[in-house]
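WARN retry 2 of 3 for item q-0093 after timeout on previous attempt; input resubmitted unchanged.
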Amino acid sequence: MTDYEIEMELEAALEALPKENPPVNLSDWNSGSDYKEKLASVVKLGKKSDLFDYQYFFPDCIKKDLAHKLGFSDEAYENSFFAPVSQSTLSIVTLAIFLKKHNQKVGIVEPVYFSVQSCVDDIGIPYRLFSDYMENINSTFDVEELLQSDCTAFWFTSPVNSCSIYFKERVTKGIQKLLDAGKIVILDESLCVNGYELSRVFGVQENLLYIYSPHKALGLQGIKFSYVVCHTKYYDDINNLEDIYGGSLCYSCQEGARHFVSKNFDDCRDVYTAFWQDNFLKVKNIVKNYDFARISPETFGHYAMIFIRCAVDDASFVEAMKRLMKEKGYFVYPGILQGFAPPKGFCFRINMLLNTNDIENGLRVVLDYIKDTGK
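OK item q-0093 returned
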């Protein structure tokens, strides 16, 4: 089955169930009610943004503060262009068109956010997928494979998509080699927890472009904004593309920018960190009771992948999830929907911002099913 067929079958099964008490998708993007309630009691917005006029940039009074909070020095700020849009998907579209206009062949280091490959396909950008690394990228990454390819640009996602694994020295040194070789590098850090940005490693370099969306990691989707950060060399290109495809900034993302530079953002991040880390301990304690399952100890964020060592057939798994929806009230999406190639083995994502009781009960339900059928 293709990833699209899997998703459509599970969505259809979900839609057919009564709406009063829907089953919980442990792989869901959204947070649970307990986390939302905790964060709602902490978050404070200034409500000082303009409701009326078109706004294409954030106020001058916070621009440098935004750069500093994203990890850029004063010198880097002076040599860079910060192009804001309302959300990170628009940043992905902008950079895909940028690559097309510069006649690049892009090497996509998987897994990436789902819209990246769709964008390069639709726009007609030649590309190659590098699928050998996944969650093991920090121990297996081989930059020579990328350098010896015919790709002229490379797209990385940090942290690793749906794994919350951040790049270590082996990968960052490899990325620097790509930059030194004159390659264009895009670092999509939309889900990066503030304080762990690669800007603190690389700074601003001529062929390096970043994507940021700091509220996304905290589950505050209603006030998120996105930044494309690049060297001033590409000011005209990026400014023009974001004007055309991104448009003006909505009120909520202007509020988000002001919130990001406030102490209250840090308070929200503390709530976020405590919540997911508490659930992560519970997840690890459950997983260790199933000898066929594992979770990366490098996980640092609310999305984690559970990797399975026994064979799991896609079609059988989908039928089982449809049954578990009805009988147990829980299900998951297989990792192929998050860009994890089937040859790497079966896996599924779990969102550690869901309610703790759902995580504990639901994870046992899914792992018990695999234990009973996968051996």
